[in-house]
Amino acid sequence: GDPVPDEDNWGLALNVPNTVAPFNTDFVMDFGQLWYSIEGSSPDRVLTIEWNGVEPYSGDFGFYTSFQVKLYETSNVIEFWYADLGYTFNDFKFGPVGTGSDPTVATVGLYGDDAFSDYIFYGNDLSATPKTNLRFAPNPKPNVQLGITPNPRFYNFGTVPTGDMQTTQITVTNVGDESYGPAPLQINSINLTGSSQFNIISSIDPNDMINVGDSRTITVKFAPLADGLSTATMTVVSNGVDSGTQSFELTGIGLAPLISVDTNIIFKNKFTKLGDSLTARILIYSTNTPSIIINSFQFSGPDAGEYHISRYPSSMTIPGGTVDSVFITYVPTKEGRHTATLTILNNSVNNPALPITLWGTGVLPHITVNPNPVLFDSVDIGVENCKTITIHNPGSDTLFITSNKLVSNDGDFIYTGLSGADSIIPPDKSKTVTVCFVPLSRGSRVARLRLTTNIPRTFENPRRDTASQFLIDIQGNGVPTGLLSQTIGGVESGGWVDSTIVGTTICIDDSLINNGDADIMISDISLSGANKGSYAISGFTLPFILKAKSTTAIRICATPTTRGIASADITVKGTTNEQPIQSIHSLKVKGLQTCASAEPMALFQNTVIVKNTDSIVCTTVTNCGDVAADYTATITGANASDYTVTPGFVQNILPGQTAQFCVKFNRASSGKSPATLTISAPNTPSQDIPLTGEAGCAIVSAQLPNLESMGKGGKYQITLTITNTGNFEWTPTGIEGLDSAVLHYISGLGPIAPGGNIQIVLEITPDDINHHYNFPLTISGIPCEESAATATIDFTTSSTGVAATTSEAGFVLGQNYPNPVSGSTTVNFTVPTETMVHLSLTDLTGATIRDIISGRLSAGEHTASFDLSSLSSGTYVYLLESNGVRLSRYLVLTK
Predict the structure, then answer these.
(1) Is the pTM of this model over 0.70?
(2) 258-283 pLDDT, tens digit each
(3) Which residue in 776, 712, 714, 781 sits closest to 749, CA to CA?
(4) Which residues on adjacent β-strands are paired with residue 884?
(5) For residues 757 and 784, is the Cβ–Cβ distance under 8 A?
(6) What is the DSSP letter of 335?
(7) Inter-residue contact 537 to 554 (CB < 8 Å)
């Protein structure tokens, strides 16, 4: 690369095409040192190589020079440092460099002498060594940039009918510059991914070099093959510096003809008499914008000749969004189901070959005979045995029996046939005839019954005779033998199919029948199958003889242990006429699961009601089993009388269905009332639902503070505390017993939570002196109270007409508590200094009733308690006297 100038004392940029050789002569290393170091970590390491104190051959001996080469790992920069790298003797870190002139000056070239022109050369050009350091760096990359328009890089072709196409051009431009020299743009590849309905029809030659500012175009087409939205992505890969790979999004919507019909099957379960016809219409819809073009209608299949088009659409082109129809006619020429396919060939993309199934049935009067053949087995010689033959018409037309008779001359058989009106058998009706066998000798006998009918031959060519003549073979055996069969529950050859609840037993009789003329020795009766353990058989002792023409019954019981079908077989084995004989019947008993689930699993949780009031909660019971069940609801427990369940009985809840039981809770007293609601049904575990109701009331009490002595003309506020000790919140509505002149309500009424209280403020304004007042108060609005909410305000005004003195000179006399008092009471008082104190009790006349305290007390608060139970009810005064201070308060004694 070219050396690049640097701002910090780097040499001039020089054109260096090949080689850099700052010192092209050998070095004398007698005294010098060669060192290296690595700084930093990968990928940004710097390798420094230092020649330290080197004497060149070409210089004057005794002079030394030093220089470094730095190599930068990532940027590939190489730096040559030889300016200002002189050293003193002590500067060398790795040892001395020998002797000679002081190498402290800046070394340039070989010790600063630039006269030697071959000290450094660039390529093949010799040049004097620059007097500055050199840096050689790689040339910068050309500024090639890829640009694609339109931008944003997206194009929508819109809606295009299938079969058509649209194109667009995408422009590729070299949007770079030539700041680092020529910068041609080269397109490496152009790829298109996504829907195959997009294609590039003109591209850019990879060898085409696009100069800066020049453009090329790419042409893309959208040719939809299907209906709906399609997308693709075109990716352009170039040599652009930081825009080399770019993508362009393409979208388009294909509009294709779409077809649908109102039915894909016609003539299903349609019965048409041979020779008649039946016509059906098919609606054909063109469900998209382009028109549907019907190319042809084609019939295929084994019976295609039974169908034809009786009316074509009005036009074989059905415009988009319209409907037309085609009519198909069915003319059966032979009996039975006729299967064919009508294919509508069209230009739609969703169903270009639309198939319609044709499924008609041609019918005729028909005949079935049961049994056929008729077998008489083990008939005693000379004994008549008769059998009934049923002639049934399963067709759709009336069956005529034109003749019916035996066509053999075997005298062992007797036939009684049909005649007159009995020979006419309507559709799906039957008639019976009788044939009897009277064996004249031992051995087998055969006969044939021939019936001729009105059933025509088919319309095929050649025609077939389907049932105009019907033959019935009759066989008889005059050799006595046993015939073993079973009839379980009265159903011959039907086995046993039943159901019962899991864990319960169900039984049925199995009749063992010998219809033959010889005895059968029954030697084994056994059960087999995966669920044979669910069955038991009884009522017999092996071996035993089952007489000819006799029946005996055994007992089969099933007890399913799991839910679902329990299958087994019962096999009866024996011998008759020394030949083995057996009868096998299947047993299938379904185990039915009973189940009941109730929600919620607890009723009246966290419910507190006012006593003597009702609360109703309902629970839903689901029959989660296999059988319908009757459900009964009962309440048990010590508190069952507090609950009532409605209804007590619900009949016949079907599997998966629900019933609702509602429980009413009413308790006459406060407290919790645990009980149990039990939902039961036959053969079903009971559902026990806890009942956890609780009833309560507001239990209130009223408390007055101690009343001070009061006098006429004063205003006194007292606080009445109302406490709710119950478990039900209530709100007082008023106070009864107030006096408009003396006792007034101020504030405080409000709701009281359980365990809470309120303070009601009352005001007293006495209007007389030396007067006894008594106000019994009642708190109103208490629900179902269990204790009276009452309080009595009782006091007597002083004779002086003023309130009693309660504090003076630091002495304080508190109100006794409780007040009113019925027994003992307590008084608090304060003494400012140590002094003599006298506390006494007097009546309202001032007569001393009792000395409570008389003595010297220390300063501070004191308490005195005394008993008043021996005194009569009324108002009293207690006095505190000390050093000329006299304090008094009133107390009320009630009993």
Answers:
(1) no
(2) 999 999 999 987 878 777 899 999 99
(3) 781
(4) none
(5) no
(6) S
(7) yes
